[in-house]
Amino acid sequence: MDIRFAYAPPAWAWALGGVAILLLALAVYRSARARISAPRWALLVALRVVTLVVVALILLRPVRLIPAAAATGRAVAIVVDDSRSMQLPDAQGIETRLQRARQLVAGRLRPLLEGDFDLRVFAISDTLREVPSEDALTGNGRGSDLGGAVTAMTERAAAGEFVGMVLVSDGAASTPVPAVPGALPVFAIGVGASGGVVDREVRDVAVSDVSVVDSFAEVTANLVSHGARDTVDVRLLENGRPLDIRQVRLPGNSQPVRERFRVSPSRTAATVYTVEMAEATAELTPANNRGTVFVPAPGLPHPILIVEGAPGFEHSFLTRTLKNDTGLDVDVIVRKGRSDRGEPTFYVQGAASRTAALVNGFPRTREELFRYAAVVFGNIEADFLSRDQVAMLLSFVEQRGGGLAIIGARSFGERGVIGTELGRILAVEARGAGAVNAAAAASSRQGTRIELTSSGQDHPVMQLAPGPDAVASPWNALPSLAAAAAVGRTRPGAEVLALVSGPAGEPQPLVAVQRAGRGRTLLFTGEGAWRWRMGLASGNVAYETFWRQALRWVAVQAPAPVSVEVEAPPLGTVVPIAVRVVTPAFEPVSDAGVQVRVEEPGGAARTLTASLDSTEPGLYRASLLTLAPGVHRIDVDASRGGQSLGKTSAQVLAGGNDPEFVDPRRNDAVLRRLSEATGGALLETSALAGLSDRIRKAAASPTARLVERDVWHNGWSFMIICALLGIEWALRRRWGLR
User: Fold this and answer.
1) How buried is residue 306: exposed, middle or buried, by Cβ count under 10 Å (0-12/13-18/19+)?
2) Element (H or E) spanning 485, and its range?
3) Which SS3 state, helix, strand or coil, does residue 550 take?
4) Are 306 and 330 in contact (CB under 8 A)?
5) Pairing mode, if any, of strands 562-566 and 574-581?
6) Is the dihedral of CA 182, 187, 192, 194 positive or negative?
7) Confidence at residue 209, expressed as pLDDT on a 0 to 100 scale
8) Which residue, 578, 567, 559, 585, is CA-closest to 616?
9) What is the per-residue pLDDT across 681-695, written as a single tens digit (0 to 9) for each?
10) ∠ CA 687-691-693 to the nearest 5 degrees?
11) Span of the secretion signal (predicted)?
12) Domain residue spans in the chain?
């Protein structure tokens, strides 16, 4: 008999729990120590410790692992894969896999098993269904949920309905297969060729994030040749129009080659990119020769707030740059000086709906601050912000998921904003003295002033030009900064993207980023970046590109009060739609009405109602079944008590990739894992003799099927606790304790 705990803590937790129980028992009887003798006091403490230990052990749920009862039914389920991959040619290439499966059931399995068992035939695709016979199989199923089939049949076998299962499939599972799917013995028979086939495949088509870098993007794809070495023509299509054609040499033997394409997605409309390979002679299937990725149309601009410590060239150049960025909606506060009464005065510019809250130099409430996706401080001292404003900014980043950028050398000086509590969410520590060094004096040679780190070479903030060979050269060509602040150590988890030379020639961070809670922070320690714009040719947009990307990066991850998430679904597959709803202060709303309208490519629309998910406050879920290929538009409207809480939209491409034909060869590894985990076996068609005996033996053998039985779930555990508490109570009363 094997006993264990269903919730087994680590050794240190056992020790900590034991100490906590002992201290709790001692604390309960601390005042009684002087009123009764030491032996009596020790006995009461011991009783309380034992009681608490028993309760703790019960909470950890002790269970016994016992053999499952042997199956008593006479039925065997023959489950046949009915998905589209079964229409591919079998190993001999004359008939399809489905035809071969029908022949196996009718010609081999029925004669072998009908004398000993009642046979029932099931078809598995994306769902499991019983069919009258193998002749009812069509091979039109959208997917192959093999793990789901085993799980479903195991539940039915638990009631004594089945003693075994025979699975006939090519192993092309389009959904994840659990490691231990169930206790019903499964005997798998593979159909289709596992090797020696010719097939070309496009996998894992992806596109880089265009929410930060929108002037260009990178489409990547893995290209595979199942078979010999191959040279193939590869095409990249943009919305169906050929954009690039190249020859790629594939090494064969299913080794992938990663191919990259530089593209420029539309800034006003959605774009679909397709990577495709030419069909090979005698190829197993052309259905996997193309893969598609979707770049949605740009959404609403992200509102950001820029707070400048004083007017200057940087302010003028930066606001002029961001004014032309359609991805950002910028409000600006500039401290001008003081009034006749000694109060600070500010220049405020921005959207009329938000600027009324900025007249005092900063938003006054969480609701006013949380309207923004990011806040930028330029040359701001520590005393500019009150303690409440600092606390509000910390919540803005860590809880709301907003972005914070600190720029300008004076922000990192001795009295800079880095010295406030905000410093703990930044990428570097304060230097202390906050020395400012002349970056231009560190090196007078053009091209060595700014050095990208290995992280910076790949980071979207630092991409000034397309092409991997052009990443560093634009930075080498930039004019010198006026100065750069010396800062302290880099915090754990931070990424330094660019360096400049410090006072003694040591490298100092110029650009660094950090994740903080749900949000992001970025710092730029340089001063006088406007010199880049003045010192470069009019056609060079390095200054504009860097600042647009830097501020987009800190802003794009900030969610709206109503946000929606949905994955790109294969056709015929149900995928979840997740909607999060919060108040303007970003408190979760759990009593909202959430309507989801789905518009299909042909214009047909349907409305879904999202239901509250009990696992997370403010999270609502709906299910989307897509049957039409193409771009689907999803519009979400959340309201409460007749008042709108917000709206949002998303676009998703359905049917861009087909998991059913990923590596279309017979997958013996999946079939073996399914069968061996349940006490069955993967069988060759030539080794089916004796299958009846193997099923009967596996069904009667308990070794592969252990079930849990609760040890505590009985009257004895209750009686033990009652007895311990009763004895303790009686002794307390007898010895004069309450």
Assistant:
1) buried
2) strand 483-485
3) helix
4) yes
5) antiparallel
6) positive
7) 80
8) 578
9) 899 988 888 888 888
10) 135
11) none
12) 2-67+711-734, 75-194+666-704, 199-299, 302-555, 562-654
The pLDDT tens digits for 495-545 are 999 998 776 677 889 999 999 999 999 999 988 888 888 888 888 888 888
For the chain, the average pLDDT equals: 85
Q: What is the pLDDT of residue 67?
A: 57
Q: pLDDT by residue (tens digit) across 90-149?
A: 766 678 999 999 999 999 999 998 888 889 999 998 889 999 998 999 988 888 888 888
| pLDDT score for 700 | 65
Per-residue pLDDT band at 178 (split at 50, 70, 90): low
In sequence order, what are the beta bridge partners of 513? 495, 522
Question: What is the model's pLDDT at position 435?
Answer: 40
Domain 199-299 in CATH 2.60.40.10? The answer is: yes
For the entire predicted model, the pTM comes to 0.72
Instruction: Kindly give the pairing relationship between strand 2-5 and strand 519-524.
Output: unpaired
DSSP-derived 3-state class of residue 436: strand
What is the number of other CB atoms lying within 10 angstroms of the CB of residue 652?
Answer: 21
Contact 64, 709 (CB under 8 A): yes
> 562-654: same fold as 75-194+666-704?
no
Please name every residue paired with 544 in a beta bridge, in sequence order, or none if there are none.
none
Render 21-63 in DSSP notation, one character per residue: HHHHHHHHTSTTTTTS-HHHHHHHHHHHHHHHHHHHHHHT-EE
Could you tell me the CATH superfamily of domain 302-555? Class I glutamine amidotransferase (GATase) domain (3.40.50.880)
| 168 vs 675: CA distance, rounded Å | 11
Are 333 and 347 in contact by the 8 Å Cβ rule? The answer is yes
Rg (CA), the chain: 34
Tokens of 395: 């919540």
Average pLDDT over residues 609-626: 90
Give the orientation angle of helix 146-157 with respect to helix 668-676, to 10 degrees.
20
713 versus 493: the higher-pLDDT residue is 493
Q: Which residue, 514, 503, 551, 507, is CA-closest to 529?
A: 551
- pLDDT at residue 472 is higher than 70: no
Residues counted in the chain: 738
Contact at 8 Å (CB) between 81 and 146?
yes
Task: Give me the long-range contacts of 108-115 (CB less than 8 A, separation at least 24).
Answer: 108/685, 108/688, 109/78, 109/166, 109/168, 109/688, 109/691, 112/688, 112/689, 112/691, 112/692, 113/76, 113/166, 113/691, 113/692, 113/695, 115/692
The secondary structure element, H or E, covering residue 94 is: none
Q: Distance of alpha carbon 337 from its chain centroid, rounded?
A: 47
Give the angle subtended at the CA of 244 by the CAs of 238 and 248, to the nearest 5°.
125
Using an 8 Å Cβ cutoff, are 554 and 522 in contact?
Answer: yes
Query: Band of the pLDDT at 79, cuts 50, 70, 90?
Result: very high
* Pair type for strands 217-226 and 199-207: antiparallel
d(C-alpha 257, C-alpha 220), whole Å: 10
Structure-token pair, residue 541:
């947009």
Cα dihedral sign, 467-469-472-477: negative
- The amino acid at 335: R
**Residue range 371-378: mean pLDDT, rounded:** 93
Domain range 562-654, CATH class: mainly beta
